Amino acid sequence: MGNLKPKLQLKNNLHVLRATMKITQAELADAIGVTRATVNAMERGDYNPSLELAFRLSLYFKKNIHEIFTVGDSDEKN
Amino acid sequence: MKKIDQIILWILGLGFPVVIGLLIWAYSIVGNNQTLNPEALVKQNQYIGGVWDFLGLFFMGWVVLAVITLFRLLLSPDLRERMLSKVARIEERDEREVEVSGYAAKFSFFANLALLVCLLFFSIFNFHIEKKNKSFVDSNGETRHGHIRMGFKLRTIDEGSLVIKNDEVGKELSYSDLPISKASIIILLIIWQIGTYHLSARKKLKVDE
After folding, report:
1. How many CB contacts within 8 angstroms connect chain A with chain B?
2. Whole-angstrom distance, CA of residue B33 vs CA of residue B25
3. Which residues on chain A place their C-beta less than 8 Å from a C-beta of chain B?
4. How many CB atoms lie within 10 A of CB B52?
5. Is the CB of B99 inside 8 Å of chain A's CB atoms?
6. B82 vs A29, residue with greater confidence
7. B165 or B59, which is more confident?
8. What CA–CA distance (Å, rounded) separates A31 from B31?
9. Quick one: pLDDT at residue B109?
10. What is the rounded distance in angstroms from the CA atom of residue A38 to the CA atom of residue B91?
11. Interior angle at CA B54, CA B50 and CA B56, nearest 5
């Protein structure tokens, strides 16, 4: 119940996209309407964004959602 | 309505130090001597008596507002969330924090429920060890015996907590404490917790259908 780690592991290249645009986590967070801690959690793979947030990231980076997020191996231990 | 709530909460918040100040002033006049009447002592001076009257009226208004707000807290989920999230310092700045808040609320719910069940058990369970009279020691040679009992009372033993009388002289209406037992309060809290959880879950499920 208390484990926040997502069961389906999604990989993302947010840190690469962010570095390409030369913006900080805080700037990205402000742009998409979340906290810096949430951006950090997404980049570490500790948090899967909602569909709405994924679309906001897609619109911000001008990329398709599939170009930002891919499905990794499921963590069956969770 | 939100504007009115904000004004009421503002009055309650700013008025609280004034109320405390008044209580401290009253205590400083009479100390622990309950027979002295602070009003009579203060009104020996006309100006201080005027200040006392004004603060007394303010205190009365503050208590009425507090009682109304407390009942509204029980009945209004919106006011509850706005006010108690500030008191409990719960922040939900984005979707992740909302999710975290949900997990924490569930954890807290179960932790509270466990504590309440524990408190209920110990409030209705009593245990005694008695020394037997030496001249009546039984054939087993036992000198002590123990009792375990469980019992439940709906009301408190102190009947003076809520008094309604119609005598010629004396207290007509007096309230000083909740007139129900600890066990009753705990049962009420358990029912309230589980009941409000299911009510809100059912409401949310109906909206999503």
Report:
1. 28
2. 14
3. 1-2, 4, 33-35, 37-38, 41, 47, 49-50, 52-53
4. 20
5. yes
6. A29
7. B59
8. 60
9. 93
10. 14
11. 115
